[in-house]
From TrEMBL:
This is Nuclear transport factor 2 family protein. The lineage of its organism: Bacteria, Pseudomonadati, Pseudomonadota, Alphaproteobacteria, Hyphomicrobiales. Pfam families: DUF1348 (PF07080). Coiled coil: none annotated.
Length: 135
């Protein structure tokens, strides 16, 4: 569900999965609360064009989950990137995420190296996972 929400590129929809006082570290940026989360995501998706994401659960215990992900996007000059990362999530009793810690690295790629070719939006059910793609 998290992957589907992020692939919608709808900041308000994504922000609803987080507690009103959720705390994020995304790379070197610190964000707190749904309003800041939505603003952060608006800036992100204005810069990261044609964004497509795949997530995989790495480990979980209790109210914490570790996720690995990779997403592809291009900038306004046409340069493509694959961004690789790991996230640590912590949930409250209602199932909303209260903490998100993300570490992400960007790799410039040629357009011919892209692996995510589905139409913008939700990843099709038959599209390979990160593991299937060797990522």
């Amino acid at each position: 569900m998290a992957e589907d929400a992020w692939n919608s590129r709808d900041p308000e929809r994504v922000a609803l999965a987080y507690t009103p006082d959720s705390v994020w570290r995304n790379r070197a940026e610190f964000v707190k609360g749904r309003e800041e989360i939505a603003a952060f995501l608006r800036r992100k998706w204005a810069r990261e064009l044609e964004y497509r994401l795949i997530k995989e659960v790495w480990a979980h215990q209790g109210n914490r989950i570790a996720v690995r992900f990779a997403y592809e996007w291009r900038d306004d000059s046409g340069q493509w990137f694959r961004s690789y990362g790991n996230e640590n999530w912590e949930f409250d009793e209602a199932g909303l995420m209260r903490r998100r810690i993300a570490s992400i690295n960007d790799l410039p790629i040629a357009e011919s190296e892209r692996k995510y070719h589905w139409p913008l939006g939700r990843r099709p059910d038959d599209h390979p996972s990160l593991s299937d793609l060797g990522l």
